[in-house]
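Fold this sequence, please.
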Amino acid sequence: MKAWRYPAFWLTLGLVAAAGAVVFATRSATLREEMFLLLMFVTLASSLNILLGFTGYVNFGHIVFFGLGGYVGFYLMSQHGWPLWWATLAGGLASALLAWVLGAATLRLRGAYFALATIGVNEAVRAFVNNFRPFGGPTGMSLNFAVYRQYGGPANALWWTFGAMFGLTLLVILISYLVKFSRFGLGLMSIREDEDAAMVLGVRTPNLKTWAFVLSALFPGMVGVLFFFKNGNVEPGDAFRLQMSIEIIVMVMLGGSGTVLGPAIGSAAYERLRGYLLTSPIFKNLHLALAGFLLLIIVLFVPAGLVGWLRNRLPKLRRVLE
């Protein structure tokens, strides 16, 4: 493992650990809810970065794994009494399995064709869930409050959920660094730079792309279970929001795709900006328009994102900005 030799590894883990530790130190419920959303977006953006940043494939359907995993885990908890921990793992595995099946077909496409296909997948899965009676159809499912008793009551369950999200965020950061500095990660980055040349040089591109897609889908599925368990209900409209996929892409691009620190910083910056806009009487209905405008600005003027821009300007700090 070479990642631990880089200051960036300890810096990123330290920032995430500090964000979680301050919540446990203050025991503030308001801060806990804010940090839950922030850590959730860091996890979603970091998992998308495995496919978008390392492999170069733009996935507009990343949210489908969040929604499907959330539904599967929620169903197992509400209908079969599974504990949260096993349901979270099952949600992640269900999303990973879907990615493995989809990857065999959609990863044959490249560029805009792949991006369009992922939008179609999101709409197809949402339509399926909307008409699937075991999942409650268009009205979704609700969790009996008696379920929260085994976690010490609803209030205590929120702390357990936050703790699980905190651990999951640390895990996805660790996995991202392991991938980036592994032979597997080098293969993914060779695909990103020139897929045809990588194939000529002997890189098994179909296998690597599929496993990157599977790994990228595993974490959103687990996040979805925690998010809907915390809310107590799940509906198709909340589970498969295409706009959320776009916002996650903006977070990755804003911070710097292809780095591990970048998506974490991009998530924090965008989430704070989003929170301000949603509470502003002037901009509360324009935050999505701003997200689109921000993405346009990034692509045109700062395609490497904040961390990438700093890496280019300050070469001596590249080991810190990894």
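Residues 2 and 181 are 6 Å apart (CA to CA). The longest strand covers residues 141-142.
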